[in-house]
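Checklist before submission:
- one chain only
- standard amino acids only
- sequence pasted in full

Submission:
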Amino acid sequence: MTNLKNSVTDLKNVNVRANGISAVSDQLNKIEQELKTVKSDAQGQFSTQIDGLSSALSGLSSNVNAAKANLNGGTLTAVASSAGAVVTAWNNLVTAISNTC
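Returned file contents:
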């Protein structure tokens, strides 16, 4: 869970201007891998929140691919919005886990 947290935090801190859209893509791949581990460890718990995060990641992936194909203000705005949705979905998962502890 710590690795997933760090990857989401790193996503929030990606500097697209300095590092390009590929930096977002790299973080996306890390988050997807970490989420697989968390999903396996959760053994069905928090499936609503995990599915929400997975869905947000799919949206981000689509927008990253669109930005790679045609980088412009519109596609960058969509990437930023999708990254925000990933962070929100992550926060929802953390809240759900915290409420069971």
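Reviewer check: The longest helix spans residues 73-100.
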